[in-house]
Amino acid sequence: MSRTVYLNGEYLPEAEAKVSIFDRGFLMADGVYEVTSVLDGKLIDFAGHAARLERSLSELDMINPVTADDLAAMFRELVRLNRIDQGMIYLQVTRGNPGDRSFVFPDVSVPATVVAFTQDVPNLVDAPAAKTGFKVISIPDLRWARVDIKTTQLLYPSMGKMLAKKAGVDDSWFVKDGEVTEGTSNNAYIVKGNRIITRQLTTDILHGITRASVLRFAAEAQFEIEERPFTVAEAQAADEAFSTAATIFVMPVVEIDGQPVGSGKPGPVATRLREIYIDEMRKTAA
Ligand code: PDD
Asked: What atom in ligand 1 is closest to the CA of residue 211?
């Protein structure tokens, strides 16, 4: 079934939504994005995604073309039009179409291009992968130095996914100066006893919205939180490992570079945090 998508104020059949070849998103990857999950037809962690969008745009000197309220209304309309129960909304804002190619940012009078569409994922909660866990490989983090800005330059993360696929695993974890930064499209954690360890928020990682919620719920559930980098060897020797993102919630990681983590099966902490996260999100989805 053809989707109804959003483009610059209009809801259109997907085949009719067209963007210029001069759009800076297309020519320069000059744009930012957000992925917001939908549970029971409602938005989860919306405020966090709207706030991060604002921050990404401001770090790139782009004017935010949509208020958080308008964005929420637009997302809800897309969910309604496409009858999404579980899935995702992808939003992209680019610096628009200046009518030619130039390295210089166009004048602020050039309007941003705003695109959004839904992705139907009926088994977002009952994801088969959550039952077996992710196997990952580690690869060098060759991304640019401002990955805290959620830009659409996703070529290297995409290559990381392909390297994982070629190695017969599910994902790659990036390593910078000997320490894990994050996954191709998720934040990375290890568990040691009652402690959850994850890299601190700097320009080296994306400040995950799921990360913020999961760490808050983990603290409420009396886990200790340690925000610091860890190595692949420390992760391989940990009791458990997991990743978080809007698209996977909490995903157990059961193998790193061919070495099982803990029992080599999804561990109790990751499993419990996934349950808590889904329960809490169901309560607060709006
Ligand atoms: N990616 N780190 C990176 C590099 C990411 O791309 C993402 C999200 C995250 C987790 O952020 P959040 O919890 O806010 O989803 C961490 C999205 C899901 C994507 O690119 O599809």
From this structure: 13
Tokens representing residue 146 in the block: 């401002």
Please report, in tens digits, the pLDDT of each residue of the chain (286 residues total): 799 999 999 999 999 999 999 999 999 999 999 999 999 999 999 999 999 999 999 999 999 999 999 999 999 999 999 999 999 999 999 999 999 999 999 999 999 999 999 999 999 999 999 999 999 999 999 999 999 999 999 999 999 999 999 999 999 999 999 999 999 999 999 999 999 999 999 999 999 999 999 999 999 999 999 999 999 999 999 999 999 999 999 999 999 999 999 999 999 999 999 999 999 999 999 9
Rg of the chain over CA atoms, in angstroms? 19
- Bridge pairing between strands 87-94 and 42-43: unpaired
- Report the candidate in 172, 136, 175 with the shortest Cα–Cα distance to residue 254: 136
Provide the 3-class DSSP secondary structure of residue 129. helix
Contact between 92 and 116 (Cβ < 8 Å): yes
Nearest ligand 1 atom, CA 48 = 14
Percent of the chain as helix, strand, coil, to the nearest 5: 30, 30, 40
- Phi, psi (deg, nearest 5) at residue 51: -70, -40
Q: Do residues 48 and 209 make contact, with C-beta atoms less than 8 angstroms apart?
A: yes
Q: Which residues pair with 226 in a beta bridge?
A: 197
Choose the residue to mutate in 32, 45, 143, 150 for probing ligand 1, maximizing ligand atoms within 8 Å of C-beta: 150
This prediction's pTM:
0.98
Distances, alpha carbon 193 to alpha carbons 143, 218, 231, 269, in Å: 32, 13, 17, 9
User: Is 254 within 8 Å of 260 (Cβ atoms)?
Assistant: yes
